[in-house]
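I am still getting used to backbone structure tokens and would like to learn alongside you. To get us started, please write out a protein record for me. Once you have written the record down, we can walk along the chain together.
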Amino acid sequence: MRDTKESRLLLVLLIAIAFALITVDIRGGEDSPVDGARQAAASVFGPIENGVSSAVDPIGNAVTAVRESGDRHDRLAALERENAALKAELGSDDRGRSRLKQLDKLLGIAGKGQYGIKGAQVIAIGAAQGFSWTITIDAGADDGIKRDMTVLNGDGLVGRVTTVGPGTATVLLASDPDFTVGTRMESSDELGFASGQGDRPLRVELLNGKAEIKKGDRLVTFGSQADKPFVPGVPVGVVSRVDPSGGDLTRTLYVTPFVNFSKLDVVGVVVQAPKKDPRDTVLPRKPEPTPTPTVTVTVTPSAPADGPDQPEQ
């Protein structure tokens, strides 16, 4: 349409009619005189709108799907991460229970002996500074660890601290050939010195060559002057073999240590010695002997065999 005076007048007239119709429709409410026209228009254009909507909806859905696909991918990735974390947590649950059990035993032995300990975890095992049987723990000078402190776990004597760094320390294990600790026999109080032999039992030289020792007897640490490097009363091991007494000044024993040196994880460093020697109180209770079943056989005499028939009288 050309921009003329007539076209402008027509446009103004149409706008005025439109406003008038709107006013009449609003004032009329449900009885509006244009309601019939609205319904007629709806019946004509409604199917067309539905058709257009049906044609457009798949496109709109596709656009929405593309737009939300990133969100779904993020949610899926988050769920996968949560699942992996849960699997890792479940997978390490046994290890967590094992550490909790070790810590419980460690606190038990520390309580019995009245040892002030600093808990630590083994972070490395192997040769260090020329020692063949050592471990590295995640506690050091910043944690109050010093050289020549006793190291134990929930089973007994682990070793002694040899080198200390700010956050770590090296422990010489009791199984090392260069390791020696004073020992005392349970009950009999016989003194000796235990030395490491690698993966073999500890070798103990008793000072009394005539001491009466038998397999199954147990040893604890005797303790050192000023409690360094060893505090008293820490369980060492069980006698597994006794060499025959040959009249020597000393007697040799072989002792299986309480500690399994190949399975060390949670340990404790004794940072405060007990006020008095705990003696044998830290030793675990001896297992009850299993009774040997006895079988009693009772022989029931058999009935006498019938003799030959007797002739009738």
